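Researcher: I'm comparing several assemblies side by side, and this is the next one on my list. It has 439 residues spread over two chains. Same procedure as the others: predict the full complex and return the structure.
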Amino acid sequence: MIDPAILRTNPDLLRESQRRRGESVELIDELVAADVAKRSAQAAFDELRNQQKVLGKQIGPLQGALKKVTDDAARAAAQAEVDALMTQAQSLSDQVKEAERAASEASERLDALWLQVSNIVNMDSPVGGEEDFAVVENVGTPRDFDAEGFAPRDHLELGELLGAIDVERGAKVSGSRFFYLTGPGALLEIALLNLAMSQATAHGLIPMITPSLVLPSAMEGTGFLGQAAENVYRIEQDDMYLVGTSEVPLAGYHADEIIEADRLPLRYAGWSSCYRREAGSYGKDTRGIIRVHQFDKVEMFVFCRPEDAEAEHARLLSWEREFVDALEIPYRVIDVATGDLGSSAARKFDMEAWIPTQGTYREITSTSNTTEFQARRLRIRMRDESGTRPLATLNGTLCAMPRIIVALLENHQQADGSVVIPQALRPFLGGREVFTPAP
RNA sequence: GGAGGUGUCGCCUAGUCCGGUCUAUGGCGCCGCACUGCUAAUGCGGUUUGGGUUUAUCGCCCAUCGCGAGUUCAAAUCUCGCCACCUCCGCCA
């Protein structure tokens, strides 16, 4: 949700943001009208309610006094007075109820519209759709397998050769897009987890293991029930959702809280399974584990002052790069275009790893500055000298297991199908230097 | 899953039986001011959150007693549903 004051002071900013996203500009006009309607309905109710309270305050004492009157004539007079007030109060009560109904309807209409508005884009984000990203930097050099004299195997072939990945049995047990990590594959994930967490704690992030099943409020608050809703698993029987990222439980962690400014920034590294329906991606990435319904991920999440958010965003990106650098994987960083930001992000940087057998870069991390958007929806505020106000939240992938494993296997493979383990990972694999094909 | 109990403005707490000066009591903490060599102590005032009104200050109005409905002229208080926590029982990795 966006600061409602912007609607009154600078609606054109909202219109421009919607335009850049390729979303409805008319929505802002509806919003302006609904905002006016809501305020006037609320004011009408407030006024009537005030009258009702004033009247109510006269009735109580009068009724008390009535009991003490002994003189018959005086009693009748007092009774008449009470009756008159009661009559008045009764008709007022009907009006109050009607005004209250109107006010709450107007308020719900306004809220419903607000929920449709995506975050205001950062004006530095490249404008356009998925293909209109800007490349920020290329890091590392893809290997020249021709020069090395062999054709690279893809990650699935390598994974099966090493006894590390089993998608066939994944499909047998859970259907397509599910997999097992076996033997060295399982050890590799655990090592990656440990490397990620040791880096995260070295930077002062608080390690977290989070719920992966959440209430609708957490899902809605993080903005995943908008355009992204079709990719979310819902447990209908209990009205809960499986999270697609621990961003959801980490953001929700401080919902409804007011955090003292001197505790900020609060930085977390959450570990959880992630579930994605991958609706509408039939036929895409059907081979291997690039696109799966369930995987594990270490996600960074930050709560900070809004004025620090951009610097914090740069910091998250630098930590993502540090991790991928340590794994010696070639990659590029892209500045995601406005049409591809998702509803919550004002700006987003993705890291894309070079995948030799695809001859292209594929997304392995993503870091978003969601400014105050999620904090407003989740009612997370901070308190400093100037009072109480929403804070900013940011998130970034530290290690999404399947895609890191894909990049690792493909980029570090050797002609005989073995895979060299990057130096940084070896301490977490008992000093092992290479994975070799199972006999 | 069953039975019982609890939920009040940062923390603790009064109020709930029996609806109306509850404009929610008191303490702690915190903020401001005063007093005082300094500190401490003391005194006075302030201290939930959100919205509206106001150029702004001051102020005024509305909502908010776990959440939501209901009864009533009027709900912290009565009724119903839900949620969370605690105790006991049952079941369970």
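Model: For your comparison table: The mean pLDDT of chain A is 92.
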